Amino acid sequence: MEQVLEEPRKRITARVSEGVRDTLEQAAELLGATVNQFVVQTAYVEAQRVIERESVIRLSQKDAQRILALLDHPPKPNRRLKDAVKAGQRVMRAQD
Question: Looking at the whole model, is its pTM more than 0.85?
């Protein structure tokens, strides 16, 4: 039989008011979970939602089409872009 190695677990603790604790206990009981299971699962789902929200850029169809068009047909470099490239090159040379 193959052994499954479990990743070491770490503890997270939180001090909460009695009212918060009562609410968590009630919600956990309604789902048939322990308070710990409820808190961990709920926090994990919310953490995933926050990470996705902050990591993914959502565009309208119009904005996406505009970006794709710019990638297919980029504008010619203007003076500001050329100056920025030169400044970047100077910085890179100074770091060498």
Answer: no
Note down pLDDT in tens along the chain; length 96 residues.
566 678 888 999 999 999 999 999 999 999 999 999 999 999 999 999 999 999 999 999 999 999 999 999 999 999 999 999 999 999 999 887
Domains: count for the chain: 1
9 lies in some domain:
no
Contact assessment for residue 31 and residue 42, using Cβ atoms and an 8 Å cutoff? no
Q: Which domain holds residue 84?
A: 18-95
